[in-house]
Amino acid sequence: MDIASLIGFIGAIxxxxxxxxxGGGVSPFIDVPSLLIVIGGTFFSVMYTCPLPVFxxxxxxxxxxxxxxxKKMDQLVERMAELAAIARKDGxxxxxxxxxxxxxxxxxxxMLVDGADEGKLVTQLNGEIKAMRARHEANQNVVKGWIDxxxxxxxxxxxxxxxxxxxxxxxxxxxxxxMAVALLTTMYGAIIANIIFMPMLxxxxxxxxxxxxxxxxxxxxxxxxxxxESPRNIxxxxxxxxxxxxxxxxxxx
Length: 253
What we know:
Layout (H helix, E strand, L loop, with lengths): L2 H20 L9 H17 L3 H12 L9 H18 L12 H11 L4 H50 L4 H56 L3 H9 L4 H9 L1
Helix pairs in contact: 1-7, 2-6, 2-7, 3-6, 4-7, 4-8, 5-7, 6-7, 7-8
């Protein structure tokens, strides 16, 4: 669980609810027609922007903003150096069955065991990184759809409310509900875009960038094992991409 995501989301919603309650309660801010226009309309419009499997898969990707995969780069560097020492001492076949942190690492290691040369290893693993980025971008484009379409649906709801209000000026009882639709749809659209999905998109893009760097380090390490580089040289090359504090920790170890 990513604590920052959870606290940030709950805190933002809590501040908004607190302001509503202090102003007289939440009920004046709940309007079913407005919810149908903004949430329902945005849901189906976003679905319209992509294939159905991508749309459905995007909800699982959104959950990763709160439950991200945990991959530690310092542990990766240490394990890569250990495997390099094993390969230099006992050969590539000794890498068979060795424990590694993730499936991508495991696949690359198995390629070395199976006799893949450096060129084939790098080409295939980089291809997988590219495919991963494409999958992530497809899911993130769905999140962008919520950000872009939510406020637009809010504006559509506002126009609908204004039309209803202007068309019933002779009936004072109809003005209030129409004005509620006009104002609340704009509010709902702003909340959807700026409180829910914009921070989520930033988080997901950050996780993708981290994953790309992590997998790039895996490629660097395995490529150098294929070359027969020393564990120390491999570690030095890999830690150059890490933050200074983490570099100092690994160098001290």
